[in-house]
Amino acid sequence: MPTAELNLLRHRDIPGLDRLSVYQEHGGFGAFRKALMSMTPDQVLQEVKASALRGRGGAGFPTGLKWSFLPNNVWPHYVVCNADESEPGTFKDREIMEGNPFQLLEGVMLTAYAVQAHAAYIYLRGEFWQIGKELDKRIAELEAAGLLGDNLLGKPYSLRVYTHLGAGAYICGEETALLESLEGKLGQPRLRPPFPASFGLFGKPTVINNVETLANVPLIIERGAAWFHTIGTEKSPGTKIFCLSGCINQPGNYELPLGTPFRKLIYELGGGIPGGRAIKAIMPAGASSSIIKATETALDTPMDYESIGAIGSTLGSASVIVLDESVDMRWLIHKTTHFFRHESCGKCTPCREGTYWMEHLTRRILEDHASQADVALLASVAGEIRNKCLCPLGEFSIMAVTTALDQFKDDFVRREERETSVEG
Amino acid sequence: MNVLMQRYPDEIARILAKYPADQKRSAVMPLLYLAQRELGYLTRQSIQDIAEILELSTTEVSSVVGFYTLLHDEPGGRYRLQVCTDLSCALRGADRFLEQLCQNLAIRVGETTPDGLVMVEEVTCLAGCDKSPVFQLQGDGEITYYENQTVDKAMKLVEELRRHANG
User: Fold this and answer.
1) What is the pTM of this model?
2) Are B56 and B28 in contact (CB under 8 A)?
3) Is residue B74 part of a domain?
4) Mean pLDDT of B30-50
5) ipTM of this predicted complex?
6) Cβ–Cβ gap B88/A321 under 8 Å
């Protein structure tokens, strides 16, 4: 069974995989050669479509389908790699870019070939300055090796790849805000439609995919869509990198087949909870998660898009934050609302004002000055934000709040009220 | 006279070459980083220079500076030591780390050491959640990550920076 194999974090098995020579010794750029020498761009696209690879940045949208939306009567096409990794609890794209950077670059190149783009941009969060510098060197190596530039492998196809650094704004992980930022503007989301596939970078048809998504592409082209389907579940094939953090003995990235249960990740691989404390809850998609109460059923839930959806949350970018019994949900939602207030771009009112008020209310609740009326007001503010925002940031800002209020009511009873009820 | 253009002609040409000729506005952030490299913040002059190079208004350039947290229009410390206290890091003691670091440096969050060397700031997620406490050091046009930190390690780094600055 290939299920135990590392596909994306191969550098953990192969020392020096971040060097071009080592990457090529292990089959690197074989997929790109195969595509250019023996496949049409459409055949590359169809192979990725057949693999049913889903976007790893959070939305889980089928990648090949996304590519197929680009119109063939508007040119040029662009490819943009979203390396803005900023969701609290997410640190997987960084490891791919540091440890296995050529697999990402090959994925970018295959994607560009599939949609006949001649320029691709890798948009990195500004904090990844060092990674950007290293990627620039590797791009230069590929140019020197004749793998990037003009008339690649003697074919009439040319491609250039560039890095572009953001400058500190979570919102730029949202694809249309990223495009605005790459165009030199404020990172504020665009109204959709039109979607980037028809009106993207510089107003041209654009494919925009997450780092982890693109890093899957070389193996799919090299080994075929059928191989990809032997890993993971029917609707969520392939492996996924789970970023494990929070109250856990062994935090880190774990690449596992989609459909692996939470229990295996948390207790078997992650070594369980520090101090032998009891687990309280799981946030499977970082700060944007609906919180899952860590019942036995929840722990046995397979980590794939459908199964996590069925228990009321989302897989998102698979940033699994573990919360143990010592975590007070009042503290937790104050942290998350502080984050979203800070990162709201200010373009739409429900998010700009709503996150501001949620942060204020959660602080009062945390400091124990709040009454039950304030708790109700918090729920009401969250309800007013729901479904009214221009982009997912505002929608995500209420997930932890509403699910914490709903599932952990005891945490929101004031100390004096708690004491009264104990005495009574 | 465009000071920035005079000073870094080759680097500016390389930056502009990354974008289509009719889309040079895309170069605004790379140019702002370039202009910020030496002083650690952006002067009025450098914003004017960039506006001129990209054929933008100074307001357009300034709004970009205001929007993004890694661009600064006011002087801070020579180095900005930015500690993540977001959710995952806080669950692993980042708030306590930040507090103790500030105590050791005898400053509060947002302040700079009296010699102007280090400004300590609190930031949101840096994608280093499994190696908390983590901070990034912004200065000299670079951003470097420091992970699995202790207050002792961080204080040693500050001492090194001080020696480097005085040497």
Assistant:
1) 0.96
2) yes
3) no
4) 96
5) 0.97
6) yes
